[in-house]
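Hi support team,

I'm filing this because I wasn't sure whether my run with cobalamin finished correctly. The job status page said complete, but I'd like someone to confirm that the output block is well-formed before I use it downstream. Pasting the exact inputs I used:
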Amino acid sequence: MRVMLINPKFRLPIDTRTSPHLGLAYLGAVSEEAGYETMIFDADVEDESVTDAVSRFKPDLVGITANTPQVMQAWRTARAIKSIMDVPVILGGPHVSVMPSESTRRPEVDIVVRGEGEPAWLKLCALIERLKKGNPNFSPAELLDPQNPELSGILGITYHTSDGEEHSNPDHPPVADLDTLPWPAYHLFKMDRYTNLQPATDAIDGSKSFSIMTSRGCPYRCTFCSQSIMPVKWRARSPENVLAEWRHLVEDLGAQEIGLLDDSANIDMNRMLQISDLLIENNLNHIPWIFVNGIRANLATKEVLARMKAAGLKRTAFGVESGDPDVLLSIDKKIDHDTIRQAFKNAKAVGLETIGFFIIGLPGETEESMEETIKFACEVDPLIANFSMMTPYPGTKVYEIAKRQGKLLLNSWEDYVFFDGRARYEMPGMPAEMIERKWKEAYRRFYLRPHRILMTLMRKDFWINWKRTFKVAWKTIFPSKEKTELKKAIQSEAGI
Ligand code: B12
Ligand code: SF4
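And here is everything the job wrote out:
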């Protein structure tokens, strides 16, 4: 049986980095482990159209991933595939996990897998393999026949039977033991077509940059964060299991940089100490690694940070979000500014580079609170300050607040991106103009301080890719009206 997994093309309005999709890499790995011939088609880097690839590979089952800005392209891709082949099409990923029936109501989508995908995907693969064996003329319509009970026992899926009735089976329990999962199937990607992980690591060859996830889930529930895919329960891989994959990345795949994608890697500090010790004992600490997402500042002690630094950690990030104490309290981040200050001090004291994530335009913000955020960013002074304009994703509390008390300024799911210089919603007392002005001001005031300019010019990484850096900075501050053209280009490049 042949299964095809697709990442639909979605280019952000600025030239961002591309990395292999870890969710698809895991799904590819479990599919291969189960004995299926597997193809991953990442439309971001492929030369051929998706329909050409489907005609060539002739899959028995297609899975498409979709975050919010990608979901419309996922539908277009599904439609294009259905127009040339009557094959079951399954959608999964962050957006469809929160809004499954919007997709299953569409004729081009047969089933949505909600949440962590591996168990339900494998069950669907096994079901379709069995049905096809018994019936060479099998058609996906049979799956959605109201008389057919086959789908009703598969947890974590949503579908509409052909009589129009929606079925949303109970959630699948989270993968209990992450050590049982195979390593992500990077060999199914064209690895030489991806970039490195972050602008400040340009000295590293893109094709040698890998991601790893050592834990899944996050026990916190910040009001702006789209935590819909992974269960609340934080689950971690054992240090030994992490070490084995790390060794594979370095020794078999030649990794020159590793990015940890965990939502909150340091929930168990002891585990991070153990992983660090293993990396040191096994001489793997010469390969730099970075935290791509924020780690919890309240758990970033000097001891843990120093040990991780000795184990090769180059850079850590902290989600600061707001410089205003009341706003920080209102978003349920469960942290205070002194703790954040101390975390940055600790990281710098042990010689780590730092990233700070900040948000402009959280509900209830005023010009003064945004001002506090800019000042706080300048005070803690990370190497990279990333200011996002609040984008309310469905499933978050901020989305509900913005819908109820304010006005969403988004026309389609494709607008749900951070970087095109436009406010995504406004509220009484917080007009779009204010959010946009303060966001631009944040970048300008943070990066155009004399010591920052000097620091940037002195970095080796900056000179390696300075043209790109300038282009990204320019497009961030002065977004062009290219979005419509961009959308057209994406659709035509996808061959659909
Ligand atoms: C790394 C990362 C990135 C990277 C790389 C993205 C990539 N290629 O994977 C970069 C920096 C490029 C990025 C960009 C963006 N990201 Co991002 N990103 C992440 C992050 C931190 C990790 C993703 C990951 O690897 N997860 C681990 C894997 C195992 O999980 P997964 O991918 O979700 O896949 C599992 C399930 O979802 C499901 N599944 C997924 N697809 C499918 C398909 C099928 C058929 C099936 C059956 C199941 C299935 O099964 C998988 C295995 O369990 C997540 C947060 C998170 N914890 O997931 C945010 C996250 C996915 N990103 C998010 C956002 C908002 C964005 C941006 C839109 C931000 C922006 N700049 O505007 C862009 C969109 C870029 C694009 N081209 O689409 C949101 C998505 C929210 C939403 N509603 O869509 C998340 C959830 C963060 C958050 N908590 O808010 N991102
Ligand atoms: S922002 Fe970070 S701490 Fe908050 S819910 Fe999201 S992943 Fe967890």
